[in-house]
Amino acid sequence: MRIYINIRILFCVMLLCILYGCGSMVGLPSSKEKSTIGEITPYTTELRSLPLPKEKIVIGVYKFRDQTGQYKPAENGNNWSTAVPQGTTTILIKALEDSRWFVPIERENIANLLNERQIIRSTRQEYLKDADKNSNQGLPPLLYAGILLEGGVISYDSNIMTGGIGARYFGIGASSQYRQDRITIYLRAVSTLNGEILKTVYVSKTILSTSVNGSFFRYVDTERLLEAEVGMTQNEPIQLAVTDAIEKAVKSLVIEGIRDKIWGKSVDSTVNYQRIIDEYNTEHANNNNRLVGNKYPNDDRQNLSIFGNVETQQVKDDYVNPATNIGGKLGIKYFLSKNFNLEVNANYFKIQNDKIMSRSFFVTEVNLEFLLIPQYKLTPFVYGGVATMFSQDKTRYKAQFGGGLEYLVQKNIGLRLSSQYDMGFSDDWEDFASGKRNDQAIRFGLGINFYIGKN
């Protein structure tokens, strides 16, 4: 009995060691971390690499804050924590410093600054009475801003895109999920001379959250259950997302100011700014086609295509033991619009029941196909139509419907994964009629689509 108990204890210790090792492999923290200098975003480097101005611009920021009033989403109950950091003014000032185009001055807490300057004056007057009256006891004047920056985080949208994938078989399973949120900021430059709004820029940034999970759940005996789980969740920090968006807005403001001649004598005439202006204009032009979720539609699918499929087929007829066979399909598609196309194809189709019968058909099909989102590289599609089946004894007819996915691996080449269900108009595909159901078949295909013609 003692030996049995010791074996169980040893097994538990080994299991804990294995789980600890798995935790280290999937990146789970196993020890405390010391403080580090804050991370930088991709736009931090781009800001610091901007060409230097001839003269820096004195700029003031009174308030650049969260204007959404959005709280963090919570699955259960209420969450009174704000979704957006409340220190966005500080983030903006840091971005202005990194750009090296501006001299930010303190305006967010100017009351504290003025109060401290008053304390300095009072202290000097009180304790320097016997000093030389001709000595300069005054403070230098405060800098004043030629331009004010206004705006803020004006939108926080939760769950603009969600999805996942998973599978489970005999108690062993794995799954992965993702979620995208989105923040939007506006930044505008205002002239203190006459109040004119010189420039307004608008930037959005998605925030990604992902999770990966695996589980094992199985009875190893009638009264013993083995269960194990492992998983990892990663959430993009909101603060870094806000910083990235603000730095992008500052960079856009600098480049648009150079392009539209807003910064005046600060622009150095000896420096060639054309490269960064051209890059920005190209990005702006490409962005005109961007949709929610950072997806860029395209018109690579032309109005005519030739395709070929390799298919597996299995009949559902009146005999037992249907066999799986390999067939093929060749055809042409003509697009009536971006979403709809008319398809004509010819294919080889074989039905077989082991040790009972086998018959081959030459089939011509006419289908109407609908592409759900043809402007994307990956799009689902569905189709349906009628067909004629030719064999040695006589001609038969059927209807079919199916669907699948198409992905453009190159501009004019698409890979297709599809499934099709054939419904016969008669019950004599194998020359034997039994029951009330007509003969049917199911197919799974992998194909390639070559697009030709005009967009």
Structural class by SSE content: alpha+beta
Q: Count of helical segments?
A: 6
The CATH topology of the domain at 304-452 corresponds to: Porin
Rg measurement, Å? 34 Å
CATH class of the domain at 304-452: Mainly Beta
What form results from the Cα inertia axes?
elongated
Q: Please tally the β strands and state the result.
A: 15
GO cellular component, one term: outer membrane-bounded periplasmic space
Keywords: Cell membrane, Lipoprotein, Membrane, Palmitate, Signal
Protein name: Curli production assembly protein CsgG
Organism: Chryseobacterium formosense
What does the model show?
With 455 residues, this protein is of the alpha+beta class. Among the domains are: 43-70 and 83-112 and 143-156 and 183-203 and 239-289, Rossmann fold (3-Layer(aba) Sandwich), CATH 3.40.50.10610; 304-452, Porin (Beta Barrel), CATH 2.40.160.20. 21% of the residues lie in helices and 44% in strands. It is built from 6 helices and 15 strands. It has an 8-stranded antiparallel beta barrel. Strands 1, 2, 3, 4, 5, 6 and 7 form a 7-stranded mixed beta sheet that branches. Strand 9 and strand 10 (340-353) form a beta hairpin. The longest helix is centred in the first third of the chain and has 24 residues, at 2-25. The radius of gyration is 34 Å and the shape is elongated. 22% of the residues are buried.
